[in-house]
Predict the structure.
Amino acid sequence: MAITDEIKLSYLHGTYLTKLIYINIAVWIVVRLTTVILVLGGNEHPTFLDWVSLPASFNQFLTRPWTLFTYMSLHFDLWHLLINLLWLYSFGRIFLEYHTSRKLLCLYLFGGLAGGLFFMLAYNLFPYFQKNIEFAQLLGASASVISIVIATAVYVPNHLIHIILIGPVKIKWIALVSIILYLVNLTGDNAGGNFAHLGGACWGFLYMTLLKSGVDLSSRSEKFIDQIFNWSKPKRRLKVEYNSGTFREYGYNKSKKEKQEEVNRILDKISTTGYDALTAAEKETLFRMSGKR
């Protein structure tokens, strides 16, 4: 199986954690290649990022409201991307041990929205930021990721993560240290980013605290968001052929039934253990059957 085919299958049948990682990487590649093309074409300071990054100024935001969504999967520096993806993968895997993939996606999106709103409010409310409000912009998945970190820490505070050179650490301490660092750097070089982090953290805390008490803030949004992310996913169809005046329904012959049962088994395995847990033979079977739909 070609690597492009495996990536396609991994995306289509993976959890939303897998999809979010792929989306962030794909956006970063597009951004960097676009920048290279523009610079080589003579545009030394390309401004296309201005139209997808979230501006601090409300006046600018009103001319590009979509940036409240586009900024949260937008990166330019490689290290910024890698750090966010490392945190997203590490804490996302823990979150999925206890909650659904849909809830992870909603947490990511609403955490990003909360972070964006905190960023804009800070720049428009505090006099300290007024001199830079027309130039400040926000990009990156940090607010979305920290919402997942805090929500996970609220739900399983004593879950251990093994950190290189340190050893096992309870995630509640990782969350607490992160919050303290954001607070003490609210007037630092990345002040706007730290306000966004706090916005994502507040959403993660609120969401999980209410969920533990039986109130699900994402229940009405999950199905709608799920449909948006899966609009291009191939649907299963029954294949019918007309032959000698009769319809032969291939979906019900023994061979077809056995193949379908095998695919269902593989899909069930993906839903419980993830696409990466499949064997090479199972991935090949899934790839062949997907191509016939």
